[in-house]
């Protein structure tokens, strides 16, 4: 979330990828840093350590939404 | 100006504070106007003076808001110089507080106090059981910092403070160095301060890990064996220090163990260097337990757990006996959650006469 906020502050297109377990924290940080509407997409939790195949599958599921969000 | 709540009486006020998530789960002293004003007055500072913004919520750490936390924690006015210095220390960017508050790791600011403030600020314990219950200054100072981190910094379990389990030091984690029993120079002198200074040092630390060693004065390698067992505790392959490397860690020697090392002619810097040398792992050892953290290392390479010996903070505290303590750290964040030392200002504080009104007290 912080990376997305820092990128957005520099005028770069930004999209935060946040797992569902961290979704409330993402909201909290976005509000705290003055960017409550920073675009974000929800990932299943956990994502780290779940293996290349699953990460590839999650990425394929989300890629269209990611491109759409970054093109908006 | 701090937002105010209104209640008919103190019992109702306490329930309001609990219900709004403004406590640490234990009862607090109700921060009434009068109590907060007296605590602010004791600091000799303006209520609206801000020490900085505290993440992740970005609340302004004003003297008044810090005083609210201190009142709630049960602090005496005498404790305030240490509370304020500790808040200044954790707000130092090198401490990475915003990230530390949000991490999934179990970390809390360990507050170490050196110099005359140990006695002048309410008698901060450094002997038997100093990190346990029974010592008002230790309990209240650490608790005030925690309540500030929650209510100014906005750390809420599972929402903004993502510690997976946390540890009991997140209620309070404060002790003084037992300078009188130590054969070494005080910790703050090793960190560049004068011996007559009062200093607080904060480290983002795990809970204490016990390190047992039974001394044997007839053994020529007594001190070597003690160093070895301390290093086993510090360089535990399950810690962030071993897996991530960098950051600081704390070694609390009990006086008996400190004297074994001093008796072998070791100064504090020698101990830090000896522990640094021993806190090292091979790529293969790391890969065997956490391969993801060893993937960029060359086969057969050695990796130290710490950047340099100064990252190992050695102090003397606790009763004498078999057990010393080590506290590994979180050691992440942009600055690797650096240990920060901050001078405690004693001479700007006012003495506030105590006024107590008691009707019925049950003991």
Properties at a glance:
heterodimer; A: 72 residues; two-stranded parallel sheet; 3 helices; 2 strands; 11% strand; globular; B: alpha+beta; 2 domains; 4-stranded mixed beta sheet; 12 strands
Quick synopsis:
The complex is a heterodimer of chains A (72) and B (363). With 72 residues, chain A is mainly alpha-helical.
| Shape summary of chain B | globular
Q: What structural category do the secondary elements of chain A indicate?
A: mainly alpha
Number of strands of chain A: 2
Give the strand order of the largest sheet of chain A, numbering strands 1, 2, ... along the chain.
1-2
Helix content of chain B: 25-40%
Describe the structure.
- The complex is a heterodimer of chains A (72) and B (363).
- With 72 residues, chain A is mainly alpha-helical.
- Helix content of chain A is 53%, strand content 11%.
- Chain A contains three helices and two strands, in the order αβαβα.
- In chain A, strand 1 (16-19), helix 2 (23-32) and strand 2 (40-43) form a beta-alpha-beta unit.
- Chain A is globular.
- With 363 residues, chain B is α+β, with helices and mostly antiparallel strands.
- In chain B, helix 2 crosses helix 3.
- Chain B has helices at 10-19, 33-43, 63-73, 80-91, 97-102, 117-120, 136-151, 187-190, 222-234, 240-243, 255-263, 268-278, 283-289, 291-294; strands spanning 50-54, 59-62, 108-114, 174-176, 199-205, 209-212, 249-253, 280-282, 302-304, 312-316, 323-327, 340-343.
- Chain B folds into two domains: 9-175, no CATH class; 207-328, no CATH class.
- The two termini of chain B are 37 Å apart.
- Chain B has 14 helices and twelve strands.
- The A-B interface holds A 2, 22, 24-25, 28-29, 32-33, 49 and B 55-58, 99, 102, 154, 156, 158-160, 162, 292.
């Amino acid at each position: 979330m912080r990376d997305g906020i820092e990128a957005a502050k520099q005028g770069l297109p930004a999209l935060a990828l946040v797992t569902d377990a961290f979704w409330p924290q993402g909201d909290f940080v976005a509000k705290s840093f003055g960017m409550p509407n920073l675009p974000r997409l929800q990932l299943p939790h956990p994502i780290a350590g779940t293996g290349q195949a699953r990460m590839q599958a999650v990425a394929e599921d989300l890629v269209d939404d990611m491109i759409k969000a970054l093109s908006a | 100006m701090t937002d105010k709540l209104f209640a008919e009486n103190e019992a109702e006020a306490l329930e309001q504070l609990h219900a709004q998530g403004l406590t640490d789960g234990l009862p607090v002293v109700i921060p009434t106007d009068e109590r907060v004003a007296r605590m602010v007055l004791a600091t000799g500072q303006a209520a609206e003076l801000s020490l900085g913004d505290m993440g992740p919520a970005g609340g302004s750490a004003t003297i008044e808001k810090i005083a609210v936390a201190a009142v709630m924690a049960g602090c005496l006015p005498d404790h305030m110089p240490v509370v304020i210095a500790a808040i200044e220390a954790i707000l130092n960017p090198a401490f990475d507080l915003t990230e530390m508050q949000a991490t999934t790791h179990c970390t809390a600011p360990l507050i170490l106090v050196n110099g005359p403030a140990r006695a002048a600020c309410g008698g901060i314990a450094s002997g038997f059981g100093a990190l346990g219950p029974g010592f008002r200054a230790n309990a209240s100072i650490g608790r005030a910092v925690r309540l500030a981190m929650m209510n100014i910094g906005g750390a809420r379990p599972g929402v903004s403070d993502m510690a997976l389990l946390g540890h009991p030091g997140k209620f309070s984690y404060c002790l003084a160095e037992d300078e009188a029993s130590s054969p070494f120079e005080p910790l703050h002198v090793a960190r560049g301060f004068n011996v007559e200074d009062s200093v607080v040092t904060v480290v983002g630390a795990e809970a204490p890990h016990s390190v047992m060693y039974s001394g044997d004065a007839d053994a020529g390698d007594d001190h070597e064996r003690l160093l070895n067992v301390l290093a086993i505790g510090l360089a535990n392959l399950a810690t962030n220090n071993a897996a991530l490397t960098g950051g600081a860690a704390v070694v609390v020697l009990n006086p008996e163990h400190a004297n074994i090392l001093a008796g072998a002619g070791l100064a504090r810097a020698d101990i830090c260097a000896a522990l640094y040398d021993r806190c090292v792992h091979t790529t293969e050892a790391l890969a065997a337990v956490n391969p993801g953290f060893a993937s960029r290392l060359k086969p057969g390479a050695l990796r130290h757990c710490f950047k340099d010996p100064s990252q190992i903070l050695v102090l003397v505290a606790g009763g004498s006996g078999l057990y010393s303590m080590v506290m590994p750290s979180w050691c992440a964040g942009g600055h690797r959650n650096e240990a920060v030392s901050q001078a405690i200002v004693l001479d700007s504080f006012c003495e506030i006469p105590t006024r107590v009104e008691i009707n019925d007290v049950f003991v």
